[in-house]
């Protein structure tokens, strides 16, 4: 029973780390999948398979080498020198991405709660600090509460969409995009999200005793991400092309399910941003801890102060500047991971 619970904790942490602000609002899914019409069903299946295979591989390799942070994994994959430089670049980009996450949390407070932007930033940072006092276990516990709520909402949205006139449109939607762009989109999406999840997947794998537990956690987690992708795509396809005009397309769907679902959805948007922010801060703290003699709490505070400063530039401007830069590195990293031989880890 203990192993089963650990499998679910790993799976939920994997899902919670992948599912961030772009996923929750539906913009990512619309951009990388739904806009490509009926092809999206196949590309989501491909993405699900990649999340299962490569996510499990990250955790399995990390367990084999006893990686303490994502820098250890980079050095193992690319060599000592190249791995250090790649880790440094990832560190800088992850700081920027965390600033984006923090800015997104502030935007939720402004746009949906009519509260001050700074209030959202401080609530997020204070919550992160106290959660991280107990390390990876606190992240797993948090996601064990948040992710079932996400999955329940996905099921509710699917159940509602089945009864709409456009329920089968995900099979018939056409697209003007070329086939190369259709099939490049899921690769970019998977690469970016796996690299973003790496700071927490590495310690998650290395700190788990059983290799079998790691394997099944990766399988269930990747499958869960795929289910949520398919559920959101299914729902948005039924409302295409009109839904593409909304900044938060999934929000417009949630509005049709009643005030209770709207409140739950709003809470989940914040929690999804929050859980991803916490996980990334934890992973970056581990990397800095390897290079300095500072305590984890001091490092965490320093990183959050940095993110707070850059979050003042706002959500949209940071997003447009940093995400394209990160894309090329993500594809390179995932290609190296894909070509790397499957590690043999003795089970327990």
From TrEMBL:
The chain crosses the membrane at residues 7-24, 36-54, 85-109, 115-132, 144-162, 182-204, 216-236, 256-282, 294-315, 321-339. The keyword Glycoprotein does not apply. InterPro entries: YkvI-like. Keywords: Membrane, Transmembrane, Transmembrane helix. It comes from the Bacteria. This is Transporter. It comes from Paenibacillus glucanolyticus. The lineage of its organism: Bacteria, Bacillati, Bacillota, Bacilli, Bacillales.
